[in-house]
Amino acid sequence: MDTCWRTLNKNVFLVSRDGSRPLLYAPLQGIAMEVNAAFVQRFERALQGDADSANALGMEAAGIEKFIQTPPNARHLLDPQWPQTFEPASATIFLTHKCTLRCSYCYCHGGEGADMPWPIFERAVRFTLDNARRQKRDLRLSFHGGDPGACWPYFQQCIAFIEQACGEAGVKPVLSIGTNGFYADAQAEYLAKHIDNATVSIDGSPEVHDLCRATAAGQPSLERTLRTVQAFEANRVPYSVRMTVTAQSLPRLAESVDFICRHTRTPAIRAEPLYARGRATASALGVPDPAQFVAGFRQASAVARQHGRLLTYSGARITGVFSSFCAYPAPTFGVTPEGNLTCCYEVLHPGDPLRDPFFYGHVPADGSGICVDETRVAAIRAGARQRREACAHCFCVFACAGDCAAKTMDEPLEGSETPGRCQITRALVHDMLRAALEGDNPLQPPPAAAANTRSDASCPCEECAQPDPALPPHPHPPRGSAP
Ligand code: SF4
Ligand code: SF4
Ligand code: SF4
Fold first, then answer.
1. Nearest ligand to residue 329 Cα
2. For strand 268-273 and strand 310-312, is the pairing parallel, antiparallel, or unpaired?
3. Ligand whose nearest atom lies closest to the CA of 464
């Protein structure tokens, strides 16, 4: 059941499952259509300039040209003009390495390390807030970890500071959190009142979730996490769920999705196969077999749809053109607890073997400035471009755009490919194209999901949930002292 494809032109592909019922796919034009062998033959001749073949297809030569051109808006996306100065109005604060859980697959050794010192936190927020005020934009801050639940009083102090500083500057704060959801009821209520959107990690039923996502004391965590989700729902906080799928949990994926749909009102669930990094490398957990993951995903996706929800996988997206898998070449303004600037949500520890490709500056311990290494930034952007260009042979090049950079740097590639992940991405993109042709509107998700669909987050794939800063804020009482 392999996905097959052939490149007809650098922007046009012929895609099928095992060679049957091929689709002509022009991703930049947003065109997919089922074609037969005669059509393909004529189309290929027309691409070579044969006007008779174009006419036989009912097209002018100019019509064929349109298939292969890169439209101006796509050109703009694929060849972005980067700003000359580093003035982000959004930031991701990795406030702590501490964590209330000890997930056996944690990529970032959650629970091992310290909090961000206040001067670093304050500088990161003031810098971003100044940019937001000058640019007349909202201040978008997301918290990620570790988990803020492990440094709760400090986290509240940080939120109070942000709200007051924004009030004084007349800037609206839009706060999000990627979290394990393991909070006491009062903490969950606090979050619901101060946070605008969230992504919560839930792996499925208690047998599945609690196996990998236990507390530091080895106790189950799901019950508390579900209570947090209920607090979000009661306060109308938009949130979505993020699942990590291991080889062991894969056979129960559909059942797990059913559990999540029955116990939460999340509109969207993201299921990602385990990637063996951090603690996962030392655990007995296995990475799912790609073909089995695809089969399990299909079943689980049907279950989600029956509940009116959407199941997604990070690399499978057909509704836009992406120049990179995530926003890391921007570069994402992520500040680690030590004050390093990172553009990757997975690379946080100073000893991480991938620190050199992803760290691009620092905030000194006394918070005296933001130091950006422009050479590093240029190298990060160039690397992202090379990564996409190395995938020019693949019909997912404008969707997956070279996959997660951290994972492609972390494992041996076959050519430009991460074989298992590429297999999954291609199969699920093909599924989406087929579904679209059968009347599924990819721009219009199922009813519950439509109420709150997120665009792709900065890090679409890591084990700890990553919130989407693009989500609209939910209504909550005025904060701070905004005029
Ligand atoms: S995956 Fe997230 S919740 Fe789990 S230990 Fe790591 S940081 Fe904590
Ligand atoms: S990483 Fe793999 S699936 Fe993604 S664009 Fe490259 S070859 Fe295609
Ligand atoms: S998608 Fe990959 S490269 Fe991008 S932030 Fe996430 S882990 Fe890092």
1. 3
2. parallel
3. 1
Is any ligand 2 atom within 6 A of the Cβ of residue 408?
no
Q: Does 32 lie in the same domain as 114?
A: no
- Specify the ligand 1 atom closest to the Cα of 201: 3
**Is the distance from the beta carbon of residue 345 to the nearest atom of ligand 3 less than 6 Å?**
yes
Q: Helix, strand or coil for residue 119?
A: helix
Q: Which residues pair with 239 in a beta bridge?
A: 198
Residues 134 and 216 both lie in one domain = yes
Pull the structure tokens for residue 28.
């930049």
What per-residue confidence (pLDDT) applies to 468?
39
Taking residues 182-190, what's their average pLDDT? Answer: 98
182 lines ligand 3 (CB under 6 A): no
Q: Residue 216: what residue type?
A: A
Q: Are residues 94 and 31 in the same domain?
A: no
CATH number at residue 139: 3.20.20.70
* Residue 103 Cβ contacting ligand 1 at under 6 Å: yes
Question: For position 444, what pLDDT does the model report?
Answer: 63
Same domain, 239 and 303: yes
| SS percent in the chain: helix, strand, coil, step 5 | 40, 15, 45
3-state class (DSSP) for residue 410: helix
Q: What is the pLDDT of residue 464?
A: 59
Which structural domain range is residue 51 located in? 1-69
Q: What is the pTM of this model?
A: 0.91
Both 215 and 340 in one domain: the answer is: yes
Q: At 391, list the tokens.
A: 């995938």
Q: Tell whether ligand 1 has an atom less than 6 A from the beta carbon of residue 99.
A: yes
How far, in Å, is the centroid of ligand 3 from the Cα of 164?
32
- Number of domains composing the chain: 2
346 lines ligand 1 (CB under 6 A): no
Q: Which of 102, 115, 180, 209 to mutate to test the pocket of ligand 1 (most atoms within 8 A of CB)?
A: 180
Do 157 and 441 contact (CB within 8 A), yes or no? no
The residue type at 264 = T
Cβ neighbours, 10 Å, residue 62: 8
256-265, 418-427, 455-464, range with the lowest pLDDT: 455-464
Say how far residue 477 (Cα) sits from the centre of its chain.
29
Angle 123-126-132 (CA atoms, 0-180°, nearest 5)? Answer: 140
Strand order in the sheet with 20-26: 3-9, 12-17, 20-26, 31-34
pLDDT band at 209; cut points 50, 70, 90: very high
- What's the pLDDT at 462? 63
For ligand 2, atom 3: residue with the closest CA: 422
pLDDT digits (tens, 9 = 90+) for 441-460: 765 666 555 444 333 346 77
Helix 37-47 with 61-68: angle, nearest 10 deg: 90
Half-sphere exposure of 260 (CA within 13 A, CB side): 32
Report the relative pairing of strands 20-26 and 268-273 from DSSP bridges.
Answer: unpaired
Residues 292 and 195 in one domain: yes
